[in-house]
Amino acid sequence: REAGYPVTRFHGEGKDGHGVELYIVCRRQDLKIILSFVKEIEPTAFYITEHDGAATKIYRPIHQTVTGWR
Fold first, then answer.
1. Interatomic CA distance for residues 20 and 11, integer angstroms
2. Cα separation of 35 and 32, whole Å?
3. How many Cβ atoms are within 10 Å of 5's Cβ, its own excluded?
4. How far is CA 39 from CA 32, 56, 57, in A?
5. SS3 of 1-55
6. Which residues of the chain have pLDDT under 70?
7. Largest CA distance in the chain
8. What is the C-alpha separation between 5 and 60, in angstroms, rounded?
9. For residue 21, which of 36, 37, 38, 4 has the smallest C-alpha distance?
10. What is the pTM of this model?
11. Are 23 and 8 in contact, with CB atoms under 8 Å apart?
């Protein structure tokens, strides 16, 4: 959220106790940035990526990296 991405948070319980599941809708080109945030916070995090055929709305990040490439 601090980087401008919308995040939905779910609290749950697994075999090792309490856990948190995050749902983040993003553009494919932003995935590396988001995964670097995740690994920085929790290096052993388990994650799954899915291709969504349709979404009602994709929120663009507030702080986009300027690459000079369009």
1. 5
2. 5
3. 19
4. 10, 28, 26
5. CCCCCCEEEEEEEECCEEEEEEEECCCHHHHHHHHHHHHHHCCCCCCCCCCCCCC
6. 55, 57-70
7. 46
8. 7
9. 38
10. 0.62
11. yes
Place of tokens 């939905």: 8
pLDDT at 36: 92
C-alpha closest to that of 62 among 2, 1, 4? 4
Exposed/middle/buried for residue 60 (C-beta within 10 Å: 0-12, 13-18, 19+)? exposed
Q: Letter for the amino acid at 62?
A: I
Q: Whats the size of the chain, residue-wise?
A: 70
- The amino acid occupying position 11 is H
Q: How far apart are CA 20 and CA 55, in angstroms?
A: 23
